[in-house]
From TrEMBL:
Keywords: ATP-binding, Coiled coil, DNA-binding, Nucleotide-binding, Transcription, Transcription regulation
Coiled coil: 119-146
InterPro entries: AAA+_ATPase, AAA_lid_NorR, Homeodomain-like_sf, HTH_Fis, P-loop_NTPase, PAS-like_dom_sf, PAS_4, Sigma_54_int
Organism field: Azonexus fungiphilus
The name this protein goes by in its record: Fis family sigma54 specific transcriptional regulator
Entry keyword Transcription regulation: yes
Gene3D superfamilies assigned to the protein according to its UniProt record, in alphabetical order: 1.10.8.60, Homeodomain-like (1.10.10.60), P-loop containing nucleotide triphosphate hydrolases (3.40.50.300), PAS domain (3.30.450.20)
GO biological process per UniProt: regulation of DNA-templated transcription
């Protein structure tokens, strides 16, 4: 035997005993991660009694957070780690043990310090990162928490009461829900309320407006992007909405606008609980509740072949229909009161009221934009009138189609081309939305622009709060 082989053998023979003496604790497990030896100080540091019963036990029964099994399985050492045990933390190292043939037959673990403060600078950084992470998680959870509950869905008439009752029943299950109704009838509000009242209320509520995302980006938006799939900003990968909503609820708004290719992928994910992030060949699993909504006639789309029947049946386990305002005139007084209060609060205005004649005037209007449009009319009336109680005339002043007058420039004051174009676009979009009863996909088709472009213009031209 050469001198170097002698030294190596000497080193390995003496290393364990020396290490076990100098460090705070040592433990050896076999290839099944069962404890075969533990020095006296280890149980002392953990505050447990060393008894012969420890020997032969799976390591996790004695040290629940132990990673020794992972070391045995992977054959990879974990050179420096912090092991949490109850409310204490230890600095540890773990090494695989191999036989002469190189096969892993067990692992040895050392507790280097029982007082991580000896690694003060490292620990300070670790603690800072931990608290940053906890704060980021808290903020994320807050951002994903729903804003609305059933109490926010205002309406006491027969149609609203029946709808709320059915939605409460839906909240007691985790079955998929399909919400059908015109724009601005409270579909998203109801979806949030169902989530908030259900068993998953602590988990995220994630909404995707399918019509608002350009077709080419939707797949990545849903399934996420694997690291390295693209160069540039997305190089590190990106989580998709499925991952973000895992454990909670995914709200698919404007589901009727989904392309056939994506419908097939969504169906597969819902059936199998699995999906492939873009650029990955690994399946990821997901467990979530789906609530879908649309203002389109899905049943007709199925009959015409533009929406998959199998996906329709998968989504349409519980159906809820949000009635348009013109079918719930009995809710107007309550709703108008509620919205006036809400607007005054949000705009920091003194509390104001609304008269019965003003409510009657509201009831006579056709409401293509439903509650969203009603809210906008009330907001404008409150801003334009000084009266403590809104009267019919205050409503009439903002409800009259003032658009044509507004489109005309004042005499002698030429408008910039951009303003003329913006006004014309605003007018065309308003009129298309009105004719299509707020159906944005249909309005986009009639205007000859994409849905995404329509959404962009609606918010860019400030139409959102006006009509749609
Ligand atoms: N019953 C209601 N009570 C109180 N507020 C409501 C009610 N219905 C709708 N709203 C309000 O009207 C606005 C539009 O509601 P929401 O976004 O839920 O409608 P939607 O049907 O999802 O619309 P879209 O189809 O355009 O996405 C929101 O500000 C919401 O709070």
């Amino acid at each position: 035997m050469t001198l170097s082989e002698d030294l190596r053998r000497l080193a390995s023979d003496t290393l364990l005993s020396h290490f076990a003496d100098y460090c705070e604790g040592a433990v050896i497990v076999d290839r099944d991660a069962r404890i075969v030896w533990m020095n006296d100080s280890y149980p002392e540091r953990l505050g447990i009694a060393l008894s012969s019963c420890v020997i032969g036990q799976p390591i996790e029964q004695v040290i629940p957070n132990s990673m020794m099994r992972q070391v045995v399985h992977s054959g990879q050492a974990i050179m420096l780690d912090i092991m949490e045990y109850g409310d204490r933390a230890f600095v540890v190292t773990r090494l695989p043990l191999r036989d002469a043939g190189g096969e892993v037959v067990g692992a040895v673990g050392f507790m280097l310090y029982d007082d991580p403060s000896r690694l003060a600078p490292l620990m300070a950084r670790y603690q800072r990162l931990r608290s940053d992470l906890a704060e980021a998680r808290r903020k994320l959870a807050e951002a994903r928490r729903t804003k609305y509950t059933f109490a926010d869905f205002v309406g006491a008439g027969a149609a609203s009461s029946a709808l709320k009752q059915a939605a409460r029943r839906a909240a007691r299950t985790t079955a998929p829900v399909l919400i059908l109704g015109e724009t601005g009838t409270g579909k998203e509000l109801l979806a949030q309320a169902i989530h908030a009242a259900g068993a998953r209320s602590e988990a995220p509520f994630v909404a995707v407006n399918i019509a608002a995302v350009p077709e080419t980006l939707l797949e990545a938006e849903f399934f996420g992007v694997a690291p390295g799939a693209y160069t540039g900003a997305e190089r590190g990968g990106r989580d998709g909405k499925f991952k973000l909503a895992d454990g909670g609820t995914l709200f698919l708004d404007e589901i009727g606008d989904m392309s056939p290719a994506l419908q097939a992928k969504l169906l597969r994910t819902l059936q199998e609980g699995e999906y492939e992030p873009v650029g990955s060949n690994r399946l990821a699993t997901v467990d979530l509740r789906v609530i879908a909504a649309t203002s389109r006639d899905l049943e007709r789309m199925v009959a015409e072949g533009s929406f998959r029947a199998d996906l329709y049946y998968r989504l349409n386990v519980i159906t809820l229909r949000t009635p348009p305002l013109r079918e719930r005139l009995e809710d107007f007084a309550l709703l108008a009161d509620y919205l006036v209060d809400q607007i005054c609060r949000l705009r920091s205005m003194p509390p104001r009221g609304i008269s019965t004649s003003a409510v009657n005037r509201l009831c006579r209007h056709d409401w293509p934009g439903n509650v969203r449009e009603l809210r906008n009319v009330l907001e404008r009336a409150l801003l334009m009138s000084d009266s403590e109680t809104l009267e019919a005339d205050d409503i009439a002043a903002v409800i009259q189609p003032a658009s044509s007058a507004a489109a005309e420039p004042a005499a002698g004051a030429p408008l910039a081309i951009a303003e003329v174009v913006a006004r014309a676009e605003r007018e065309a979009i308003r009129s298309a939305l009105h004719q299509c009863r707020g159906n944005k996909a249909e309005a986009a088709r009639r205007l000859g622009i994409s849905r995404a472009a329509l959404y962009e213009k609606i918010s860019g031209l400030g139409i959102e709060t006006a009509v749609c």
